[in-house]
Amino acid sequence: MRTLLATVVRGLRARALLSAGSVLLTALAIGSAVLGPIFQVAVTNSYLVTRLDEAPNELTGLSWRFQPGSQLDGDVDQAVRRAGEAATAAVRGPFAGPQTVLESQRVPALGGAEVMLTAKDGACDHLEIEGECPTEPGQVLMLAGDRDLTELPIGEKIDLGPDLGTVTLVGGYRVPADEADFWFQTARFASFPPQETRTGSKPYRPAPLVTAPATFDTIPAGQWSLRVDRRLQVPADLQLADVQAAEREAVGLNGPAKQVEGGTLRGESINDISSIVAEARGQQRTAKNSVAPAVISLVLVALALLLRLLMAAADLRLPELALASLRGLPRRRMWALGLSEPMTLLLLSIPTGGLIGVGLALGLVRWWLVPGLPLPFPATAVLAGLLVALASIGVAVLAVGLVLRVSLSDQLTGVRRPQETSRTGLVVQLALVALAVAVLASKLSAGKPGEPDVTDLVLPVLLAVVAGIAATRITAAGATWWTRARRTTRSLSGFVAARAISRRQEGTLVILPVTAAIAICVFGAGVYDSAGQWRASVAATAAPAPVVWTSPLPMNETVALTHELDPDGRWLMAASRLNTLGPTFTVVDTARLARVGSWQEQWTPGVSTAHIADELGLRATVPTVAGRRVGITLDNQVESGSDLFVRLRLDVPGDRPHFAYLGPFGPGEGSATVDAAYCRGGCRLEALTVGGPAGLPTSMEGTLRVTSVEADGAPVEGGIEGAGWTRAQDSTSTGAVTGVTAAGDGLEIDLDTQGQQAIAQLSSGEIPAALPVVRGVDASTEAASGSFSETSENEFAVDPVITSQSVPFLGPSGLMIDYTMLTTDRAVYEQKATVYVLARDDTPASVVRGLQDRGASVTTTLAGVRNTLDQGAYALTLRLYAVVALLVLLMALAGLFVSTAVQLPARRRDAASLRVVGVTRRSVMSAVVREFAVVLGGTALAGLAAGTLAQYVVLRTVTLGYVEDLSTPALIAAVDWQRLVVLALLTALIFGTVALASAGLTVRGARGSTLRENAR
């Protein structure tokens, strides 16, 4: 035993480079196996914490309505205490303590508005106040925007009826966006203007008037209640089991009101923890499936390189094994002798690998994941490490077995002669090729993208291995053919290089692991980069601008508000989602899209946002009429059943459309004016209608020439020429107008109702029959009918002028249309539309205050959505691919360096033999460089091709993250050729350096004395 131990120590010292390389590769393989399960559990926990922490309180927290009984009349403090106790007893789990807000019933006041009071201890500390904080009963604050609309001065008395009494206005307030936790949600302070809908009108509902809690002591108990909220607490060590417990507590919360001490308690929660839990489970599965290929890649490359190094070490021990065989050592002891060194290395590698895995996991968790997240250590990590250790032992046994199969004569000479591939090896290689072809065919014929499956996991590694095998065989076969077919070649160095490749197995054996390493590196870098671009696309779909505000105003008033606050369109843009009987639209103020929006270049490659705005916007400029009186001058050459009247549609920004009736107009020239004080600030002249008295249909035939449109007696600039007057597309009017011609001297309208009673309507802006839209790749453009009419509900034909991978808010399944194109001379019912204000993150504070004053609240931000996506389990797991790509490349370079160093003595002997027979130093060096260029060049090309193919195929069939709904844009399976070229150049630089260095070292030691030394 002592002799064996001494032999092992001497051998390890003599082959220190190989020994260190073997320990390093084995430790990295075991460490990678340990890292994978730990990181997979950690990223799932981190995603859960991040997702819950960034979710709105109303989706993760709980809310109740406590209605105090008559016994608490006038005792607000007691009611607050009872409400908190009832909410605490109602639900257990990881929720914060109750926070209560007093709210009154809404009562008519301020000329028909519906007004309510609210109060909370410490409210003034969490509001931006202009004026004084209400400290006495009856003092109130009003939302700043409501104060501007109502024009109420400080000190004004507001009568809220007999129950709430009279209150005094002492100031205005705004709700900072970062105070959502104190108020539970800031959207409760929205102000809703009066709205006219098809089903009726809704009164003005200003934001709550903030008052002192003592005010409620004077209000009868039946006229006020308490809203009780409990936020979800999200510590860094929160586990999925804790959230599931909270989910169970929230089930059934919104049942009937329950009698509690002091009153009744009724749940009013919109808690959606169940969806977040389901999403976390999906992320957990995806992360688990995603970690596997990264770990497998590292382990397989490490094992392949380890086999190469152990075989090189065994080759160097051939004389030692031959001597043992001559002494008659039995086969069992020969195996013990052969395995002594590799087993010693493995014993050193196992604890080292465990430490590397845990240390790397700890570093990545601290660097990338939620601060304070505890490091998990699942049993699967230990199991994976042990499996890799057993695989390493198998590799060692295989390497020693291959050496012990060498004949005694070859062992004595110490030379391994080239051998043909065994039948078993050939069968294995063919099986791998067949499996790769089958998997590749199944992936290419797959349908829509889905979650990664087993084929996605094995394909990159399988293609890498097959590419390595193919590169090895093609390189060796090509070199053999060259040496046989070019025996009379004039290039001596070329012949020497080809013969060395064909006969020296050590040179070609490095191709397989290095090819696999390059392929996996290319695949990992490509997937990581593509996933980042996909997350950017998803984030821009959900948040089409740096900051997204929800507006309580309808779309027309929101557009007017953005133009009022930001006349030049530098920071704000209005948008909404409009549902029709056919498709769903995103309506945007496209003139501001290029400046404000977060449009992704990959949605419409080669098409700029400026071009999109041009394609979607009006073809002509709608005239603007500014004045208190509006008039028109015309020449009537129409034969009609009655005098003609003209109706002008005048649209006031932020207001309903107004109609001005002018006439009657008899035959010949005439003019008329009408009072239009609402246009003193400017109106858009969107339509012109010709008909009988009171706008009734009449028979018309002939030509009507409109010579001018006037405002306060002066012609409106652009009222005729350049206004784009065309026949309106309304089905009730298209038959009356037979021609429209605009010239400098007027607008000629040819009319012919063919004896029927009809009206004639024209629209400005040159609106086409089918409205231009940007179509999502999966969107349908089929409308409920072929045209739009004011009696139908949002029906109009569309023309998809641009196809996009995604559109804001709706993704690939929606359409995007311009607001002015949609609403010019058209009634659009938006009572169910969600309206937004999109803003840049550098919006001035004064503009932000203007949005807050009108009741807008921040819904989300692009950075917030992107951060949530970047913290997703799959996104965090893909960061591991970057680590994998780096480690695989380092392992391949380490293996290449060690392999080259081991081959150096043999190469020097070959070079010395050539120098002895008169071959020049330059030719010898050229032969070595050519040999390396062919071997490493083929390796690089095979690796780049295999990695690129794997990336393209896998990205076509998987979704690189959690798909929430149909609004999630698809992944674009494009290969970044620029990145590929950079990788190719980097690979060429590294391999070229290795080739030149090896050639230089080979030639430097190639002397005749080298042969004499070996002979001794």
From TrEMBL:
Subcellular location: Cell membrane
Keyword annotations: Cell membrane, Membrane, Transmembrane, Transmembrane helix
InterPro entries: ABC3_permease_C (IPR003838)
Topology with respect to the bilayer: Multi-pass membrane protein
TM ranges: 291-311, 343-369, 381-404, 425-445, 457-482, 509-528, 880-902, 932-954, 980-1003
Keyword Transmembrane helix belongs to the record: yes
Domain named ABC3 transporter permease C-terminal: residues: 883-996
Entry annotated with the keyword Membrane: yes
Pfam families attached to this UniProt entry: FtsX
Name recorded for this polypeptide: ABC3 transporter permease C-terminal domain-containing protein
